[in-house]
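Lecture notes, unit on binding sites. The following record was shown on slide 14. It pairs a sequence with 2-acetamido-2-deoxy-beta-D-glucopyranose.
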Amino acid sequence: MAFFFLFILSLVASSATACDRCLHQSKASYFSKASALSSGACGYGSLALDISGGHLAAGVASLFKNGAGCGACFQIRCKNSSVCSKVGTRVVLTDLNHDNRTDFVLSSRAFSALAQKGMSQQILKLGILDIEHKRVPCDYKNQNLAIRVEESSKKPDYLAIKFLYQGGQTEIGAVDVAQVGSSNWSFMSRNHGAVWDTSRVPEGALQFRFVVTAGYDGKWIWAKNVLPADWKNGVIYDSGLQISDTAQEGCFPCDDATWS
Ligand SMILES: *[C@@H]1O[C@H](CO)[C@@H](O)[C@H](O)[C@H]1NC(C)=O
Ligand SMILES: *[C@@H]1O[C@H](CO)[C@@H](O)[C@H](O)[C@H]1NC(C)=O
Ligand SMILES: *[C@@H]1O[C@H](CO)[C@@H](O)[C@H](O)[C@H]1NC(C)=O
């Protein structure tokens, strides 16, 4: 009986559990110039500052996920108890970090926000910190998911868009576009970062549908009327909806409740 119990216990301990939050141990450093991050690989440009409140982060390839990780939110705290706050801070992924010595390179504003009150100078001096991080839902309060038409778009043959203010804890895996009221969908491809494009551009006002990771698999989201017929480059359009789903991760132990 005791043997059986131990066997079950080790089975549970060795298998990954589905979690809302997995806790990861790593390191973080910071960019001395915020501009280094706002020109990031996700393609947000200066909008990176808007979507992150200045708390931008470049993540390594396993977090960047070829662009699917763009816009993901992370809670980060550092581990030096003489300078670090217990709660840490929230950052938004806006760039790819090519330096694999740290999982994250943060904006200096985000990096100093890891400090206890009055300790931000000390923390900046340390330059590189041992951290814990976990994915958390993005919460944009009264802001809907938005779609920005990129400057590279060329009516009527080419449409490039990016998603801004993506709520929840999800990744966009596929995007289709069609004329409002039509079921003739054209698929879009991820061009880079948060930017999707197509050269099969429907006429008229445009609707979008896209697949997000949610729970254990994917879910279709339908934004029924997003771009007007006279859509213009450089303009941000309200999708009329927001995402609040959470995709499950596999890990052990889970950290769903211990740390906000
Ligand atoms: C923790 O912070 C203190 C104060 O800045 C510093 O002297 C010490 O070297 C740090 N410890 C580690 C492990 O970085
Ligand atoms: C970091 O990247 C370098 C060069 O690509 C590689 O040689 C090294 O093994 C990597 N280190 C880790 C810890 O992944
Ligand atoms: C579907 O939409 C594409 C792109 O706008 C267009 O080229 C094609 O002719 C449409 N097909 C039909 C059956 O309407």
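Take-home: The pocket of 2-acetamido-2-deoxy-beta-D-glucopyranose (ligand 2) is lined by residues 100 (CB under 6 Å).
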